[in-house]
Amino acid sequence: MGRKRGRTGLLLSVAAALLLLAGWQRGDAGQPGAGAKMGDHPYDAFEPSERCAVCHKEIALQYERSAMARSQALPWDQAEYFRLALPHTRIEPRVAPVEAGCIQCHAPQAFLAGDVPPPEAGKADPKADGVSCDMCHAMTGFDGEAPINGNYVVSPGKVKHGSRRDAAPMGHEAAYSPLFKGAELCGTCHDESSPYGAPVKETYREWSLSPYREAGITCLRCHVPAAAGKAAVMGKERPDVAQHLFQGAYSPAMLRGAATLYLYPATGETAAGRTLDISVVISNHRAGHRIPTGSTEERQLWLRMEARDAAGKTYHIPASPAAGDPAGKSYSVTTNRPAWHDLGRMMGIADFKGVPRDALPEGDRLFRKVFLNPLGEETVAQWYAADTGVFDNRLRPLEAVVERYRWEIPADIARGELTITGALNYRRLPQSVADLVKIGEVPILPVAAERAVIQVK
């Protein structure tokens, strides 16, 4: 009987996966989603978030400080849309749908109001700067078999939708929606295909194939965690009030410790001139999706390995290309050779020679997914991605990878203690790209670090 149930469960899992895949493939790649339509609802169909804050004071304060509230107004999002994507739609007809498609998720109320392209941040209705409270709580579902490409369905009005069956607010009506108990609410905008049919955001898909889905742990459990308190100033005490933090890749606290790092030198004692083998075990033990996720074409996660001898001299321990990294491509190892040539064409820069690909010290292990444009060039323009299946070594949920290093110890190294360090770091965007579009410094955020000490005789 046990074996029969196991086989049945496996068949059901396979069937569910096939249904999900069918939904993804049916998604209208690169087009605004088939749910809400541009121009369906004017700005004033939605309550301003300031009105929500009158009663939901603490929740509103959390939300105001999140990237969600400024999803269109953040410096890179402004530059990416107005300096790259929008000009690109004027010279490449294939990507024309992203003029509205980007706004459908980054400034959904501007999209619904037909205000596309919207004015730059701060120059229009504040609801055009991000995702408002009422935008999410007006969602009633999604159109199609799976959430993708902004295919949300909204019904703005007096009724606000949420996860409570017994909610009885004073300022509006409330309705329970199972959408707020699952991951599909987030998936409508955190899964996306390019106009070329390539998957470019897969956070929902990654979660749906992870152990977290099997355990019933959804996006909101981590990004909107529950705590005891009141949802509104006049509400009742509850043990599980959703904290509207929406923290993610912009949050140092969220990134710190998202993965663990352990170093294992093959020996505790060695000698100058010998070869030292080092194993590094990295585990994604906190994220229900891959690390990095989302707009992975631009996000950098890398492992820096160094050794410091007894005299204080520091040596870099370089990484070799990872399995599946084609010869000469350096997909998995940091490099500063010129790249991102298509950005210059989008910006109208004549004879653009590219910018340093990673803008990092060379020779470190990179964890990334590579996007290629129709010309076969690496690109950080997700809307221009034609092939996103060439290389992917990102960290899977609840899985570990072992990175192996072989280091030739210098003959003149100081005898005594040798401290080997590994540091896993994250950056939202290559600094070279940030400099190109003039948005200032992009901080490097620590994820994990570890060290081991051996003796050099």
Can you tell me about this structure?
This protein has 457 residues and is of the alpha+beta class. It has 2 domains: 35-242, no CATH class; 252-456, Immunoglobulin-like. The chain contains 14 helices and 19 strands. Strands 10, 12, 13, 16, 18 and 19 form a 6-stranded mixed beta sheet that branches. Helix 4 (75-91) runs antiparallel to helix 5 (98-106). It starts with a helix and ends with a strand.
Can you give keywords for this protein?
six-stranded mixed beta sheet, 14 helices, single chain, three-stranded antiparallel beta sheet, Immunoglobulin-like, alpha+beta, globular, 457 residues
How much is the radius of gyration in Å? 24 Å
Please give the share of residues in helix. Answer: 10-25%
Q: Note the gap between the termini.
A: 62 Å
The computed structural class is: alpha+beta
Task: List low-pLDDT spans.
Answer: 1-33
Name the shape in a single word. globular
Q: What share of residues are in beta strands?
A: 15-25%
Overall mean pLDDT stands at 92
- Let me know the largest β-sheet: 6 strands, mixed
Beta strand count: 19
Instruction: Count helical runs.
Output: 14
Integer tally of domains: 2
